[in-house]
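Our working data are protein records whose layout never changes between entries. The record below serves as our worked example for the rest of this section:
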Amino acid sequence: MLAAAWLLGCGARTNLDGLAGAGFGGGAATVSNGVGGDGASNGSGPCASLCPAGGCQVVALGSAGQQGVVSIVTDATYVYWIDGFIADPNVIRRAPKSGGAAQTLVPAAHGAVQIAVANGFLYWTELGHYLSSTSDGAVRRVGVAGGPVSTIAEGLYVDEPPLAVDADYVYWIDGGGATVARAPVTGGAPETLASGLQSAFFMTLDSTSVYLSTQGGLWSVPKTGGVLTDVYGTSGDMRDITRQGDDLYFAAFEYGIDHVSTDGGGFQTIAEGTVSPAIASDAQAVYYIVLGSSMQSALYRVCRDGSMPPEQLAAIRGTYAVAVDDSGVYFDNSSSLGKIAK
């Protein structure tokens, strides 16, 4: 099994003096005054504890293989995930969010690493036969209920997982993490938006821009292409990134969860700890995984407005993926897909 750079790499973090990475059980004890959110205070209001009465109940929605759940997305009814970390082949599945039998949508993807759901379709990036070729990656889609698989782009050098979709286009990273590209959601000629990135790891969108976390900082480029803008520079590794309005949150690999505005201002560390690359957010909070030893990790959330300390939701045995929507928090739990209901 190949350990991909986007998951297992690390870099020195020189712009945050005194920020120490803590291990499991104590990795997220410090919170700033908070940014964004709904203005709750002292643990009350919109960002009160998610599980105030004796801890959260974890429900297994679907099983996964020995290599764990890699990427998770949801729509109104289903949760979708990739079963198998950097495996060729691996499997894409879905299950009802309310519980029920899992369904295999794609039984033999060629190293699927990231999924997105939009427009009634599920999209994903593939590493391809990664060990034997550096130009065997692809972007594909399938209907949310399964069916024929369509290819959006192929012959790509995809060793990083970024993928995002809006109503008209699919966006991804080519060239070994160096080039931002897009193509129509129905297929068509890919177009390059920007190049020259240093190992882009994850991306998110707003109405006008693509935001990219990289080994050298946070960058943006217009969705129509153009000049790369340095939103926030650092010598450390930024990993998964999530957006709420004008607020961007990212996992600073092994150091903590940070915030910066889309215009580059308002940098703030909102939680410290030895975190995994996975991160998700909703209107009230940011959700992340604190790494421990021997696959013993913990799922946390921290209020965006800083109204209460980080809250440990559950001890888990996964590190690769977390997602959130109005009905719950979904996460890699080693041999299963876990959910905590809201």
In short: Residues 163 and 172 are 5 Å apart (CA to CA). The chain has a mean pLDDT of 83. The first helix runs from residue 5 to 8.
